[in-house]
Design brief:
66% helix
Length: 149
């Protein structure tokens, strides 16, 4: 086993002293090279993402909130002896709202228009086109390359 070094030996080691100019200059050099290498993104444009978020809020958010509030309303009704509600019906109604929210999540994503101008109110006409885009996104890169040529 090695013996531990005493603190006296480690205290006399020279530390590298950098002036503020060189320390910050080296920092700026390393950060500028990291920011200049931008990749071109083929992701979802911001206006489309905002449109999706609005649709998801209404079609998934509201049913999910209702699914959680079923438990609260059921508790209030049972504790105040207004009515006798079996727990299985509370869970079934809550599950129904959660499934409705899940369907609303998919609808909100798939019904959003990718055009600059917003589409129709419900956006049902955009669903087949967005399903094709989603399928193409999951293809390997070589298949996407072969399809274009």
């Amino acid at each position: 086993m090695k013996k531990k070094q005493s603190k006296k030996k480690t205290q006399f080691k020279k530390k590298k002293n950098y002036s503020e100019k060189t320390a910050f200059a080296n920092l700026e050099k390393s950060s500028s090279t990291a920011t200049t290498s931008k990749r071109s993104s083929t992701g979802i444009p911001k206006y489309v993402a905002d449109r999706m978020a609005r649709r998801i809020f209404f079609t998934a958010g509201i049913p999910t909130i209702l699914g959680m509030s079923v438990f609260v309303v059921s508790y209030i009704i049972v504790t105040r002896n207004i009515a006798e509600i079996p727990p299985s019906s509370t869970i079934a109604i809550s599950a129904l709202f959660f499934l409705l929210g899940l369907a609303g999540l998919s609808f909100g994503i798939l019904s959003a228009s990718w055009d600059k101008e917003p589409g129709s109110f419900f956006g049902i006409e955009n669903i087949p086109m967005n399903i094709k885009r989603a399928k193409a996104a999951f293809k390997p890169a070589t298949q996407n390359f072969e399809d274009k040529s």
